[in-house]
Amino acid sequence: MSDYDRIACAIRYLEAQRRAQPDLAALAAHVGLSPYHLHRLFRAWAGITPKDFLQCLTLEHAKGLLHAGASVLDAALDAGLSGPGRLHDACVALEAASPGEVKSGGAGWTLHAGVADTPFGPCLIAEGPRGVCHLGFLDAARSASVADELTQLQAAWPAARLRRDDAGAARVARRIFVRTPQGAPPLRALVRGTDFQVRVWRALLRVPPGAAVSYGRLAAALGRPGAGRAVGAAVGRNPLAYLIPCHRVIRETGVIGDYRWDATRKRAMLAWEAAASDGAAPGSDML
Q1: Beta carbons within 8 Å of 200's beta carbon, 6+ residues apart
Q2: Strand partners, 214
Q3: Model pLDDT for residues 142-168, shown as the tens digit of each residue
Q4: What is the set of active-site residues?
Q5: Helix (H, G, I), strand (E, B) or coil at 10
Q6: Strand blocks (E) in the chain
């Protein structure tokens, strides 16, 4: 079992037992680790204690994210900028595939695809001549395998040649999930979608880590009030997990909602980003 699998198990337990506010001993017993080991692992993964993380999982916190996300999104869209923070928020050059590229299906291209570890479990990353074109999380418990992700990749670019490249995928993953010094060149990404889908994905890049936006608010920001359902469909078709942060879209009520790559992973991402944005430091109490 990977560290993320253990953390995901802990998150599911904390969410189910949120009202009871379980202590570290109960959480550790559920995960099958000693309290000391779990506390150390949790701090290493999230940078905060399980107690602080539990705070980030509450409905009230989600509503706070939603409220902050609306105002932050307004400012970001008005300025044409994305928020500060991780690489993909400030330094992604997102391009849409041209009609010719879509028609050719990637003929003459070689897509380097490989598996890389991330804070949220393993993922399959593919990169082509014009940038990253696929990022999907793997989860054996949900039968999301490398073969499944490769099938989706091949369906998007049927004429392209695939080459396994785990080392290349690991390099891309480090740029996405690890803070990069200012001045680093933008990470290039290529997406295949309709004009509306690409507009939604570009707007998502402007929602900073630690914030969230509702489907309806995102639709209004795009000049399509009332098109929340269409926005939701576009969000669900996002081919670049985490890189295009569709996990930051939640329901109007503040409920986190579903996620293509598992709702528990979505909760983990939101809480992890919120903790980092709040500048939370590891606490001294053992939950």
Answers
A1: 218, 222, 231, 234, 235
A2: 250
A3: 555 888 899 999 999 999 999 999 999
A4: 246
A5: helix
A6: 92-96, 110-116, 123-128, 131-137, 161-164, 187-191, 213-214, 249-250
